[in-house]
């Protein structure tokens, strides 16, 4: 059965490529996607090149320099420990974005895996997995994450896992829905009619087309992951070492800063809002670009 | 356009509501009075308005936390006392604003000198508990006996009783409590205890209605006295409602044996963050709060609120417990019962504690730059602490004579560590705990102080792991006081002015064993403390405590860090609040002037 | 219709069972132990054993679970280890606060979100639409705690026109708790000033909590209205010359609302759980903070039963949403 499959495969494989080029072109024209992309790109660069962007050690402070207002030495001022706020924001991007990316990767992988299982095999496998998903979705998300962190302990990986757990049911549902709808698509029927079966069908035909919505959702999940990580930090469940620069933890000091040095409360908050906005814009732009309805 | 109509209606509604509620003018227009900041005497309250107290009104006050338990005998922290001492009263108490003068409360008069072993208390006539039952000698006996016979499970909560009375059971300090008459109580001690009278002024020694104790099954672990909203005290306020983490609502006791309170109701709310407390005052949700963040002192006065400063009568210290890891390990090796602390076990990882070496402890002491902390964390209003006693204590000088202060020397600390065999490849690793969800008079910013000190230690070559737990019992308070932590922060606000309340309470041996919190076993310390405790001549007492303190500081059982000033803030309607350096304060005298 | 509801209700059971099992196992894995939590002191082996026995903690896991389930069957959800009060009592005492907050947030989100969504849908492509899109994305991007703190700082402290925390001014009003809904209780007590005060206290937390739902509802409404506007029957109605006002309400709105209703259902669930942060910032005595405190304090029963109750409510709300579908669009059939 190999020869015909190769031929058919060649034809069918054109579709995903076509989809992507088309989508890309449209994204380039969408202001939302561009702005989002620029913002995300900016933060990614900041995270990668952090050590070169500042001469200060974000975790070291000189008590004598406590609460200095923004000035030539410290562009964003210092906090109570005398640590440079800008350095903490810059290095904080590493931590916050790192946690977000890690959690989405885990969430997507695990969620997509189960969703694919459910969508492909159907029957009781589907029923069991979907009930499990329902259960997970019934529990308030933040509480679940708090519970996971309390169980696993405080640490970067543990926090990422806690947030990933929130994403798993969403991606499971998504992938299952994609698979279910795609099964009926013309080209899948065509592939089947020439004998493409099972795993090949799944991997080479169904999955590539399900990836579109997946990527969109993943981008949006990155946005919520950043917020969730910050929320955990805000509630005091962030990385255990208080010197660690993490935007959420920095934000939890906002109360105190509002009375003495209001600007200190804004910087971490604005960093979070901007990065989340970037992901949302990008994800939104991608969704519009990939929307089959708008393609026609 | 329909949409705009919706939006504008909503906006108008919001504005109307906002304007509707605007009552009194914002506080910045009022007179604004400052409390005198001198240290000669406790700051008197300022009554700007009419001089005569009037009854009526509700006072909403914010503390850092609510009570750890509603059972006074099972509490040991100032926030719990704040709530409970409005409801329950002891036999005698410190005079308002004083840390050394005694006045009779439930006892009208008493007999007993520091050298005696027998104390007689003559109870006031006609006093009833909030539930209507009468106060008599039998009730007092029942209360004292109850604490003496606490079952093991409860003993850990009854910190003060255990510390002051040398443990529990028939062989402790108290040999007998007798109701020699309807209104006469006689307490016999095993040996003279010069500070006994001061000790029983504390809230845990309050007298509770025996009927309530009985109905709530207060002697048993399952008893509900600690959580039920009951009316079993004799104080100026009655407990009306209590919602954990939310509020304690007290109402005036109309049948109080002395001048009744002026306030109709007193509501105490917990707001853990000091800046948030200030915001609550600014936002008019509360009319007063305690433990103002030192960096907010200026804001408070600038905005026209009253700042009542207290003399600093507290000390922040770094508790060092070389035996912590062994203690925790011992908990786990017990058979199959799970009273183990696997969470702590995992943190310690079975390693031996580097703190068992005196040189390492000395390095810890030398690594800390105490002066540098005073500016950022105490707003400049405080002092580095060389001994446990605050500078305002009458005994400060005498005790300081026996203690050699440590100088800040990071390099010296490094050398000591190397000498002890620790290098960069094999560093001394310690676990350092700090509490969350709390501010204490000596510790306005636990997380901040922790971070700063951790950095100092790391600069000297230590590797420090940050750990934290919530301030509560169980929780940080329990674990720390029972010596489960390598190193932790705690502090102490004196209950009365005597070195025994500082050194004695913390380092006194209990039936042969050094205090669990520090595991500080030093040759001769037990005897030194006992000698000092029982010494009745003032000069000799001072010297004896100097000796005991010397032993403690030499062995670096702990490192005293700072003394901090504290203050309360009120809006301009609140009058006649009387601060006490010990924090033992009553709302009975407080009244609200006209709006 | 009835059969549909019945089926969904029956489905509830395995889901809720699943929730109890998950939570049950989960909290057994939490560090710490309620026995040492209650004991305090040098928890001697005998003492701990005794307490664990009393609490039933020494029995094998499956026995404990069955015990819990049988309690559920008797409608006994256990009592808090720390306060000795029935979980149900504590929950009922606090739940109305969360309901009030959620209602305020939803009201804010709906009264602004739906009209704005319709507006931007009809003016699609204009500057208004772009501005709306950007604003809604910003709205989704602001973390609740940041927004809450900024609102509080701005409107309660810098420009003090609104209260900063609490549900009512305790200084001025002493309202007896009947329903625990502050607005209702104040009205019942005849304190109209109290009603106004309670409403004022709802404004800032309501806005903080409702901003994200507002943004989402706006976007969903927009997308949904766009879809409907392109539907044949609308074009037909327009072509027939029906004035747009009538076309709006009867046709467009009703059908456009379908997905919106779904989102409302989802949001309600999110709001009930997500109120934790808002409740913390504004000192609001609701269930979010209550359960959070329980997790931190290892109060098993509260966590278990509290989360179960929340899950139950969430599922019921979703069911109500699905049922309301049928009323909104008779074309939808249920098998």
Could you explain how this protein is built, in words?
Chain A has helices at 2-29, 31-48, 50-53, 85-121, 123-138, 141-152, 156-183, 186-193, 198-234, 247-252, 254-260, 262-290, 292-295. Chain A has 296 residues and is mostly helical. In chain A, helix 2 (31-48) crosses helix 12 (262-290), helix 4 packs antiparallel against helix 5 and helix 4 runs antiparallel to helix 9 (198-234). The two termini of chain A are 35 Å apart. In chain B, 30% of the residues lie in helices and 19% in strands. In chain B, the strands form 5 sheets. Chain B has a 7-stranded mixed β-sheet with strand order 8-9-10-1-11-19-12, with helices on both faces. In chain B, helix 10 (324-332) crosses helix 11 and helix 19 runs antiparallel to helix 20 (538-554). Chain B is globular, with a radius of gyration of 25 Å. The two termini of chain B are 45 Å apart. Mean pLDDT of chain B is 85; it is low at 21-49. Chain C is mainly α. Chain C has 13 helices and no strands. Chain C is globular, with a radius of gyration of 24 Å. Chains in contact: A-B, A-C, B-C. Chains A and C meet through helix 5, helix 6, helix 9, helix 11 and helix 12 of A and helix 1, helix 6, helix 7, helix 11 and helix 12 of C.
Record keyword descriptors for this entry.
heterotrimer, A: 296 residues, mainly alpha, 0% strand, disordered N terminus, C: 335 residues, MetI-like fold
Shape of chain B: globular
Oligomeric description of these chains: heterotrimer
Provide the structure class of chain A: mainly alpha
* Discrete helix count of chain B: 20
CATH superfamily membership of the largest domain in chain B, which one? Dipeptide-binding Protein, Domain 3
Question: Outline of this structure?
Answer:
The complex is a heterotrimer of chains A (296), B (595) and C (335). Chain A is mainly α.
Question: What is the element layout, followed by pairings?
Answer:
The complex is a heterotrimer of chains A (296), B (595) and C (335).
Chain A: H1 2-29, H2 31-48, H3 50-53, H4 85-121, H5 123-138, H6 141-152, H7 156-183, H8 186-193, H9 198-234, H10 247-252, H11 254-260, H12 262-290, H13 292-295
Chain B: H1 2-21, E1 58-63, H2 78-84, E2 92-94, E3 102-104, E4 107-111, E5 118-123, H3 137-148, H4 152-155, H5 159-164, E6 174-181, E7 184-189, H6 196-199, H7 210-215, E8 237-243, E9 247-252, E10 265-270, H8 274-282, E11 288-290, H9 297-302, E12 306-310, E13 314-320, H10 324-332, H11 342-348, H12 358-367, H13 370-378, E14 382-384, H14 396-400, H15 410-419, E15 429-436, H16 446-459, E16 463-470, H17 476-481, E17 487-493, H18 499-507, H19 525-534, H20 538-554, E18 558-564, E19 566-570, E20 574-575, E21 591-592
Parallel strand pairs in B: 1-10, 1-11, 15-16, 15-17
Antiparallel strand pairs in B: 2-3, 4-5, 5-7, 6-7, 8-9, 9-10, 11-19, 12-19, 13-17, 13-18, 14-18, 20-21
Chain C: H1 2-28, H2 34-39, H3 45-55, H4 61-73, H5 87-122, H6 127-141, H7 144-158, H8 182-188, H9 192-229, H10 232-240, H11 244-281, H12 287-297, H13 300-328
